[in-house]
């Protein structure tokens, strides 16, 4: 084997090591995203907080994550994924430790804020690394696999977290996760490289024999890039689909779902997270299946309409069947299908990338990504307001039906926007629509 072949082999192997380290950071992202719902009773008991305050603690993560999406794209493009993920994961670790040892509510909010800011940079950085270390034809598949593995962190934030909290207390658990995050930040800095060239290895373009010298596109100026993506009307349908779909999903699986099962169905608090582990697994599997299905039939819009319709139907069942209390036998399959079809929003990232200039893929996908975290930040406190306002007046089933009606409205609005998605046939069409 000659030197050139050895370098190609090393590049094709080392990229998996880089991706593996980064995706571990992404597991931490999902863990923190959904963990707050499991420790609700512990926080209420420790700090004596109301439903609205609890929801605001959860939303702090999403506000931070949402506001950091465009800066995350800029950091990944300028500072590089290596330093961006290392610093972000370190900050998330410090935030988790602070959350775990917090002596008062202010420190709880500060810890949650640091976690949200820290983990917000991970996903966009992974997309950036994928664009440098993997073939273009592998991008959708790798994004689906990344989402699948990341969602395992969400699964950890359900039953496994409930078990850890029961044995080690919520404080010790979040402190330990923080220490693990700090160690992972160090590993990220040591292992990750932004580009094969950083290791003297051939790029994907060189391996594929592409003539990049004549096709090289310089990034437009930052403000011009941002303006270009923001003013492109086809960027926004994916944004609103993500807002409605993911906001409702988070409100159920990450904030109020455990309380719903305990108070409406009298399910034990230790057992209730099992139901949402199923939903998280559905989301993880759906991310891969729907992404591959979309690539295979070379359509974005049709899968979003089909699966989005089923997702809307799932929420209709939760809110309207049997007065807001579907038969308990339905819950496991219902939550799995709900999670599976919710993952329709992953196609929004591809749509955002495919309707904008190829050189600003980071910025265009980060704009779409803001939508989900806007929904995750806004919707849970709306439900918290319902619980605080009507909690002493309405029976539990009616109370949750009234609250979850807002989730259904968000989802229904998101579903309407699936019909406004610009069909790209799974290729960049910017030159055709500009």
Automatic annotation (TrEMBL):
<keyword id="KW-0813">Transport</keyword>
<feature type="transmembrane region" description="Helical">
    <location>
        <begin position="80"/>
        <end position="99"/>
    </location>
</feature>
<dbReference type="Pfam" id="PF07690">
    <property type="entry name" value="MFS_1"/>
</dbReference>
<feature type="transmembrane region" description="Helical">
    <location>
        <begin position="403"/>
        <end position="421"/>
    </location>
</feature>
<feature type="transmembrane region" description="Helical">
    <location>
        <begin position="329"/>
        <end position="352"/>
    </location>
</feature>
<dbReference type="InterPro" id="IPR011701">
    <property type="entry name" value="MFS"/>
</dbReference>
<dbReference type="GO" id="GO:0061513">
    <property type="term" value="F:glucose 6-phosphate:phosphate antiporter activity"/>
</dbReference>
<feature type="transmembrane region" description="Helical">
    <location>
        <begin position="272"/>
        <end position="290"/>
    </location>
</feature>
<dbReference type="GO" id="GO:0005886">
    <property type="term" value="C:plasma membrane"/>
</dbReference>
<dbReference type="InterPro" id="IPR000849">
    <property type="entry name" value="Sugar_P_transporter"/>
</dbReference>
<feature type="transmembrane region" description="Helical">
    <location>
        <begin position="174"/>
        <end position="192"/>
    </location>
</feature>
<feature type="transmembrane region" description="Helical">
    <location>
        <begin position="302"/>
        <end position="323"/>
    </location>
</feature>
<protein>
    <submittedName>
        <fullName>MFS transporter</fullName>
    </submittedName>
</protein>
<dbReference type="GO" id="GO:0035435">
    <property type="term" value="P:phosphate ion transmembrane transport"/>
</dbReference>
<keyword id="KW-0472">Membrane</keyword>
<feature type="transmembrane region" description="Helical">
    <location>
        <begin position="359"/>
        <end position="383"/>
    </location>
</feature>
<keyword id="KW-0812">Transmembrane</keyword>
<keyword id="KW-1133">Transmembrane helix</keyword>
<feature type="transmembrane region" description="Helical">
    <location>
        <begin position="234"/>
        <end position="252"/>
    </location>
</feature>
<feature type="transmembrane region" description="Helical">
    <location>
        <begin position="16"/>
        <end position="35"/>
    </location>
</feature>
<dbReference type="InterPro" id="IPR051337">
    <property type="entry name" value="OPA_Antiporter"/>
</dbReference>
<feature type="transmembrane region" description="Helical">
    <location>
        <begin position="105"/>
        <end position="127"/>
    </location>
</feature>
<feature type="domain" description="Major facilitator superfamily (MFS) profile">
    <location>
        <begin position="18"/>
        <end position="426"/>
    </location>
</feature>
<feature type="transmembrane region" description="Helical">
    <location>
        <begin position="47"/>
        <end position="68"/>
    </location>
</feature>
<dbReference type="InterPro" id="IPR036259">
    <property type="entry name" value="MFS_trans_sf"/>
</dbReference>
<feature type="transmembrane region" description="Helical">
    <location>
        <begin position="148"/>
        <end position="168"/>
    </location>
</feature>
<dbReference type="InterPro" id="IPR020846">
    <property type="entry name" value="MFS_dom"/>
</dbReference>
